[in-house]
Protein backbone atom coordinates (compact mmCIF):
# COMPACT_ATOMS: atom_id res chain seq x y z
CA UNK A 1 0.00 0.00 0.00
CA UNK A 2 2.87 2.38 0.78
CA UNK A 3 4.90 1.54 -2.32
CA UNK A 4 4.68 5.06 -3.75
CA UNK A 5 5.97 6.40 -0.40
CA UNK A 6 9.77 6.77 -0.62
CA UNK A 7 12.07 7.29 2.39
CA UNK A 8 12.98 10.90 1.59
CA UNK A 9 13.59 13.98 3.78
CA UNK A 10 10.25 14.24 5.67
CA UNK A 11 9.20 10.97 4.12
CA UNK A 12 10.04 9.28 7.42
CA UNK A 13 7.56 11.52 9.23
CA UNK A 14 4.88 10.77 6.65
CA UNK A 15 5.51 7.02 6.80
CA UNK A 16 5.44 7.16 10.61
CA UNK A 17 2.16 9.08 10.54
CA UNK A 18 0.57 6.68 8.04
CA UNK A 19 1.85 3.76 10.12
CA UNK A 20 0.25 5.18 13.26
CA UNK A 21 -3.02 5.71 11.39
CA UNK A 22 -3.01 2.17 10.01
CA UNK A 23 -2.20 0.79 13.48
CA UNK A 24 -5.05 2.82 14.97
CA UNK A 25 -7.44 1.57 12.29
CA UNK A 26 -6.33 -2.01 12.91
CA UNK A 27 -6.83 -1.58 16.65
CA UNK A 28 -10.27 -0.07 16.08
CA UNK A 29 -11.22 -2.89 13.72
CA UNK A 30 -9.95 -5.53 16.17
CA UNK A 31 -11.77 -3.92 19.09
CA UNK A 32 -15.00 -3.67 17.07
CA UNK A 33 -14.56 -7.33 16.06
CA UNK A 34 -13.92 -8.41 19.64
CA UNK A 35 -16.87 -6.35 20.89
CA UNK A 36 -19.46 -6.16 18.08
CA UNK A 37 -22.23 -5.51 20.61
CA UNK A 38 -20.36 -2.40 21.78
CA UNK A 39 -20.26 -1.06 18.19
CA UNK A 40 -24.08 -1.11 18.25
CA UNK A 41 -24.25 -3.34 15.15
CA UNK A 42 -26.61 -6.32 15.13
TrEMBL record:
Source organism superkingdom: Eukaryota
Disordered, as annotated region: 1-42
Polar residues: bias regions: 15-29
Protein name: Uncharacterized protein
UniProt lineage: Eukaryota, Metazoa, Ecdysozoa, Arthropoda, Chelicerata
Amino acid sequence: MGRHARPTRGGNLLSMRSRQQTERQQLLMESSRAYPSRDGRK
